[in-house]
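Hello again,

I reread your note about wanting to compare the complex against the isolated chains. To keep things tidy I'm splitting this into two emails, and this first one only covers the full assembly. Below are the input lines as submitted, including protein chains and any nucleic acid or small-molecule components. They are followed by the predicted structure of everything together. The single-chain runs will come separately.
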Amino acid sequence: DADVTQTPRNRITKTGKRIMLECSQTKGHDRMYWYRQDPGLGLRLIYYSFDVKDINKGEISDGYSVSRQAQAKFSLSLESAIPNQTALYFCATSDLGLAGSFEQFFGPGTRLTVL
Amino acid sequence: AQSVAQPEDQVNVAEGNPLTVKCTYSVSGNPYLFWYVQYPNRGLQFLLKYITGDNLVKGSYGFEAEFNKSQTSFHLKKPSALVSDSALYFCAVRDPLGTDKLIFGTGTRLQVFP
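Full-complex prediction:
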């Protein structure tokens, strides 16, 4: 979805390096999410944020941190990357669901390889 | 615990034939169910959802899904498959605790052969 952008799209790094993945959205949504996708495991939630002051851990937050710089921006950091963090990372957004929507809108993904 | 199961890693179907991609769920309360599709090198695209109402839900690209409460299933269907339907399909359920988190299945790869 062009309304949700992620940078970089691909990144190769070395063990121990600090990496930041960025997500921006123009949908005006309050809620933003970071997922990682691994083959055979589907998507797993890393962190989510319901507004700038509300950040919550997902099911696999260890080794990751996030920053919600503004309503439109949500960054994911790997403080010291390790090889098992090699994965495809997705950012997603959703609105408050007041209109009964609830679906999430995904960015194109960042393919991260940690050597 | 809330969960979604997609029992088939891959589904193969000939172009023009009907297709079904299976999904079962386990969630407390009324489920909010979704199907997403992922084409190569792309993000996930929303296909359809069931929140309430008619058990047969129609979505994008001619797909539909049938909600079956007694069997706790939400299978994705299409009457006539296209080669361009080949992709990875994910079923998901909204966290019933009201956080809007989605719990995803492991995905099913659909391969449509000419």
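For quick reference: The mean pLDDT of chain A is 92.

B.
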